[in-house]
Amino acid sequence: xxxxxxxxxxxxxxxxxxxxxxxxxxxxxxxxxxxxxxxxxxxxxxxxxxxxxxxxxxxxxxxxxxxxxxxxxxxxxxxxxxxxxxxxxxxxxxxxxxxxxxxxxxxxxxxxxxxxxxxxxxxxxxxxxxxxxxxxxxxxxxxxxxxxxxxxxxxxxxxxxxxxxxxxxxxxxxxxxxxxxxxxxxxxxxxxxxxxxxxxxxxxxxxxxxxxxxxxxxxxxxxxxxxxxxxxxxxxxxxxxxxxxxxxxxxxxxxxxxxxxxxxxxxxxxxxxxxxxxxxxxxxxxxxxxxxxxxxxxxxxxxxxxxxxxxxxxxxxxxxxxxxxxxxxxxxxxxxxxxxxxxxxxxxxxxxxxx
Length: 355
Hints:
Mean pLDDT: 81
Distance between the termini: 125 Å
Largest sheet: 8 strands, mixed
Strand content: 25-35%
Structural class: alpha+beta
Number of helices: 8
Helix content: 25-40%
Oligomer: single chain
Low-confidence stretches: 302-306, 308-335, 345-355
């Protein structure tokens, strides 16, 4: 009796699942289709929808070089026609337990690591860090690539709305080191006050900002999630325009991911909630959002060209500086060699004359 009742419930669930599939195929929202949840793969679905709605990478996927590129391209082609599954994607990414929720950011970076370099290059930028002592000597210089820029939500009071724009600008503010935090300078031969500056030397075509809702509290030695409201700007420093967001609802141990994305085709915002796609209002989320987690910004038209020019100019300047420095060093070495040779010739002559 119990087994027949269980079988009946399973049949009902299977019928409902088939109906959802049929409805999703017959009635796409604005021509967009969803992705089926395998159990707790909403994090993957949200990331894949954002990548699908980022046409900049589509032509860069190289099926001949990477199997991940091939499967992504196949998935994107299927998504143009119907709601589909992600079983092949989870297999090539090594996701074995589809009933365990994972972090969307880690999933995105896993995909970018597995695809061909020309595809992930769309999201890659570079930050240059320079540390100088109080006398102006360079203590350290380094350049680091990035796919995502993390913004800490703990920088200001938790009872206020967090400004994404201000948080982004704080990345490039000078940081000072003094007192117990002084830095050793080789040229000064002692510890000294110092400053560290950050500059974006390579602007990514797609800029991804991570709002660090999941963080670690050292006072309690435990992880936590903050639902702090954030103010999300439509444009960022007049260089980038918002076109996508990955949202997280729920707590530290569980929850649900969705994606809110602007369609390039009809300039309409859509909510992607696994296999359900719906149109959303024009600006329902730009202020006081407690769920925004990942923000996707696209370099805007002319600004993108300007940034590329600045990047090239910067590279030319650094190259010319390096060449100039190399030429100076070369001249010094040649002069030293000439002087040394002359000295070798002169010393015996002087000695002979004295004798």
